[in-house]
Amino acid sequence: MANLYRFGHTLLSDQPDNNASYLFNKNTFFTAKALNMAIFGGPKFKPLYRDMDTFDEDWNEFNDIGKVIIRQQIRTEYKVAFPHLYNSLPRSVRLSPYHSPKNVYIRTDDPDLPAFYFDPLINPISLRGFTPKNAPLISHEDSIFGPNDADDDEFELPEDLLPFLEEKPLGNDLTADGIALWWAPDLYNRRSGHMRRAQDIPLVKWYLEHCPPNQAVKVWVSYQKLFKCFVLNELRSRPEKAMTKKNLFRQLKVTKFFQTTKLDWVEAGLQVCRQGYNMLNLLIHRKNLNYLHLDYNMNLKPDADDQRAKELVVDAHVQFRLGNVDAFQLADALQYIFVHIGALTAMYRHKYKLMRQVRMTKDLKHLIYYRFNTGPVGKGPGCGFWAPGWRVWLFFMCGIVPLLEQWLGNFLARQFKGRNSKGIMMTVTKQHVESHYDLELRAAVMHNILDMMPESIKQNKSKTILQHLSKAWRCWKANILWKVPGMPTAIENIILRYIKSKADWWCSVAHYNRERIRRSATVDKAVVKKNLGQLTRLYLKAEQERQHGYLKDGPYISAEEAVTIYTATVHWLESQKFAPIPFLPLSYKHDTELLVLALEKLKEAYSVKGHLNQSQSVIHTNEFLDSLVKAENKIQTRVKIGLNSKMPSRFPPVVFYTPKELSGLAEARTLAAVQVLVADSREGNVEVKACSGEYLVPRHYLFIPPPVFFQY
């Protein structure tokens, strides 16, 4: 054990005193993470609690300015060392020992020194600075027990009195090693312990200490990253559950189908490499990638490219077995491979999460090199310390092998059996629920229709049937009658049944979404816009059906009701003293004045408009108005002919206000504005009243009798 401790001491910590790790241990960083703080020289963690904002903290009995007076700045170390004293809300904090007994053991590297000797590092404490010069020199025994008397000087020990255990030596060759093992760290200070696997033992834990000064920035960063990974692993670790240990190889050995044999490690590695080479070659030829070449170093390259072979783990051991390299060169090669495996193989291109292991091995390289490349060694090609990097990649392989087995199994099944996507029930998400229902309904209709057809024409008619289904659905949404001449009645009935089922679902979804919008539920903007279009289509379909029903069965009034409406209208016009405007005679003495007045009013009406169409802009021009005045005879004749012949037979378009009510006012055409204004000016600018003094109808509006309302 002493020899093991002496050989492995270079990998252990140089600080035997536990006080050196004060505020830099596991519990301290657990507390720092819980309080969302960072200790100088240590890593910074993500906050354990998100509600750690203290800017809006209220005053309470713990931080009352009238009770607590702190005359110096509260440092982070204070809050971490005494979390319940300097923090208002300490949660998930862990307390660490404030002080441990001082360790005064001084370890020596010289095996020839005796077990007990005076080390020059121990400086005697002088009393010259504590006692005056003229003070008598009194020993501490005399100061405690008093000065010696005369009787004490006469007492002497017998000459034959020997001290106890004088014949025994004070120490032997193992005394120094025993004292060193007494003060040794854990696992070296025990006689026995539990057996553990080699890959479970981290050989270096230098990152659990402060980074030595005067180191490069990359070394500081590597220290912090490795320590952060260690703290997070400790924080997430849980005690192992008691499980029954099962040995698969032992169970397979008792059967007659499996046998065991022993192989040399290098021979087993060569067989694995050979089988992997064969597997990749079969895969390349299976994919018809004949232009690619795979060499025995697992380098995939085109035929024209000839790169040098890269030394991997098996190649390094083969070279060692052949005697081409010694053990130190083998160790350097393994250490270089494990540290630079990302650059040698580029595995991260296939699984980018592998960059975690690449970065961790790089941090371990920084951690080990700064220890090895010191003193007379200097900066060399390598240190041959491959175990830390080997552990990283070994644990990675333990986790990636089950995934690789699953991926390769799926790949082989897909290569030999093909894809079986139809047999897998896909999960219908919220985004695809509508299209999924449409596809399922259409597939069911296609299945029913194709079952009615012979096998010879199924493939030719499936595309045509899909086109008929799409056309029928578009006709339903546009409220157009769908009818295909010559289509069999059975197929037409199936298509109509499909349209009815889809229409019922479409209408129910539209009304359901409108109800959700009315309740102010959370609805996507696209759903709102789509629902507006759906309801508009349904409204227009209902209105068109109502109009067709009105044309077919309407008007929904009896003859007596029609006579009553007409009589009431006539009585209302008589009570308002309605006077119809008479037609103009062929010769009138004020024809020219009426024409000029009508043109001026027309010009004023269009002058207030900001935007004019082509006909209005032509009327608005002064040249056009002047030409009308100059050709007054022809214009007057044309206006009179229009008033006498065309006006009585032209009814203006009816204004549609509500679905079931029609107004009695309609706007006249723009081209008849001149005729209306001329006739209106002739009668002294009389305005037609719609009701008794409450609203004056403009001059270019005409009143239509009620019986006309019901004639579409």
Descriptive account of the structure:
The chain is mostly helical. Among the domains are: 221-239 and 246-260 and 310-417, no CATH class; 454-581, no CATH class. Helix content is 48%, strand content 2%. It is built from 25 helices and six strands. The strands form three sheets. Strands 1-2 form a two-stranded antiparallel sheet. A two-stranded antiparallel ribbon has the order 3-4. Helix 11 (313-322) packs antiparallel against helix 12 and helix 21 (591-607) crosses helix 22. The radius of gyration is 52 Å and the shape is elongated.
What's the main sheet like? Answer: 2 strands, antiparallel
Count of helical stretches:
25
Major β-sheet strand ordering: 1-2
Strand residue content: under 5%
Q: Which bin fits the share of residues in helices?
A: 40-55%
Q: Rough shape?
A: elongated
The strand count comes to 6
State the secondary-structure class.
mainly alpha
Radius of gyration: 52 Å
Mean pLDDT: 77
> Are there runs of 5+ residues with pLDDT below 50, and where?
302-311, 661-672, 682-712
CA distance, first residue to last residue:
113 Å
Provide the descriptors you would attach to this structure in a database record.
single chain, 712 residues, two-stranded antiparallel sheet, two-stranded antiparallel ribbon, 6 strands, U5 snRNA binding, PROCN domain-containing protein
Blueprint of the fold:
Blueprint: H1 2-8, H2 26-34, H3 76-81, H4 83-86, H5 140-145, H6 150-154, H7 175-182, H8 217-236, H9 248-253, H10 265-286, E1 292-294, E2 300-302, H11 313-322, H12 327-339, H13 341-345, H14 355-372, H15 387-417, H16 433-451, H17 458-477, H18 489-518, H19 525-553, H20 559-575, H21 591-607, H22 614-620, H23 622-630, H24 632-646, E3 656-658, E4 661-662, E5 665-667, H25 673-682, E6 701-703
Antiparallel strand pairs: 1-2, 3-4, 5-6
